[in-house]
């Protein structure tokens, strides 16, 4: 027999795809029952009675058991905009995240995008005696917080460990440094955190490793889980005669006798000659001879009527009109205010720092003491609706998490991706080529480089705009390269604070601009200013300067 043809799911009717997808899920569920999953929530059944809504008055957002758009698969849906949400599921037994591999995984689909809001989970540690699920709020203690968060300059997949200092008993939030960014589309994505017994933690998005860190490394968490051995002495004071000035004005310098501080920067150009044909007696603007006073004009109420001004056509032909004045030129004698040259300060002692003393809160640790997970909660504030949570998993090995991704997330994602491509093609939207995809993957990795962290929000905004406008790919790439080398130049040679690059599309042309941000104003304000300047009527240039 001949080899059968392979049929893509994207070519089948949606109803057939849904049936096939349902069969895959059903088969997968049977296979996964015997896996190493410790906790699994598919939301196939209604969450009511199993998950508990917070009764705190701030949490007015309505959760719904709803289908993912285009699928028969159900999830937990954020149904209203601009609301706070809180819901929690207590586990039958507390789950230990120590002494072996632990995997935290869940799916989120931002069906209406995410401009400002969170889509993360909180893995709660055992609560105080008397605590009830209905009291769940943002103060409820957690062990780990994990998942997407995006608003303003924040665009990250959080991973926060709340760890107890064995010396002080205080719980401190330790944030993963330089976490990956949140995917900018509206497709289903699966987020995975793998906690290993060698203190390594991996963050995966859609099964692809985006971040690797070590719990005990000061380079990976802020603040570090293991505090510094020494701290600045709070009682140490800088001596009154301590001189921190590396350079000082030369006290022996004298202003030269020929230095004129009062000389103007510009002077009239005495060699300039009035152009021939200049119309001294003609004004640049004249009253419109065709204008007439409106019939309903009331001189008492509206004042004396004056005809509107128009440009004097004679001035268009002549070199200029009105009183001619010599143009200004730079004054060669101008030197400005005199300042003594700076020299090395002979009394310079360096920047003063308090002496270091032993840190009373310091402790040593072989492994982080991660609190067990007694409940899983979602406590968020968001301006967007349509956030769908699904397939929440706690597992004891990576293979189990991978099998769930393959069987529960991957089929949905492929259908959504093909549907998005079809919709983009029907709408005439440019679809990213394979080459462009690689470029943007590279750009996202560049944006995640640690020393670019201060510029990350603007870089991500630039990259996301480029993804939506594939024709700008080369311009976006050029912009990122300019920013990158500008930052390198700044680090090596110093300089002023950089202003973020802006990319403006005019028809199919790409303009890249970069200027130093001397004023320290925000990008938004400068964009507004730029728009105002662009939209302002253009004033005819005067000829008097000729």
What does this structure look like?
Strands 2, 5, 7, 8, 9, 10, 11, 15 and 24 form a nine-stranded antiparallel β-sheet that branches. It is extended, with a radius of gyration of 34 Å. The N terminus and C terminus are likely disordered. It is an alpha+beta fold and 546 residues long. α1 runs antiparallel to α4 and α5 packs antiparallel against α6. It is built from eight helices and 27 strands. A hairpin with a 6-residue loop joins β10 and β11.
Give me a quick take on this structure.
This protein is α+β, with helices and mostly antiparallel strands and 546 residues long.
Cα shape: extended
Computed structural class: alpha+beta
Low-confidence stretches: 1-12, 495-546
Distance between the termini: 89 Å
How are the SSEs ordered, and which strands pair?
Elements (H helix, E strand, L loop, with lengths): L13 H19 L4 E5 L10 E2 L9 E5 L6 E5 L4 E13 L6 E9 L5 E3 L2 E4 L17 E10 L2 E11 L6 E6 L11 E8 L4 E6 L2 E7 L6 E2 L7 E3 L14 E3 L16 E3 L16 E3 L11 H4 L6 E3 L1 H5 L10 E3 L11 E3 L11 E3 L14 E10 L4 E9 L2 H29 L7 H14 L8 H13 L4 H21 L8 E5 L2 E5 L9 H13 L11
Antiparallel strand pairs: 1-25, 2-5, 3-4, 4-25, 5-24, 6-12, 6-25, 7-9, 8-9, 8-24, 9-10, 10-11, 11-15, 12-13, 13-14, 16-23, 17-22, 18-21, 19-20, 26-27
Q: Can you tag this structure with a few keywords?
A:
8 helices, eight-stranded antiparallel beta sheet, alpha+beta, nine-stranded antiparallel beta sheet, disordered C terminus, 546 residues, 27% strand
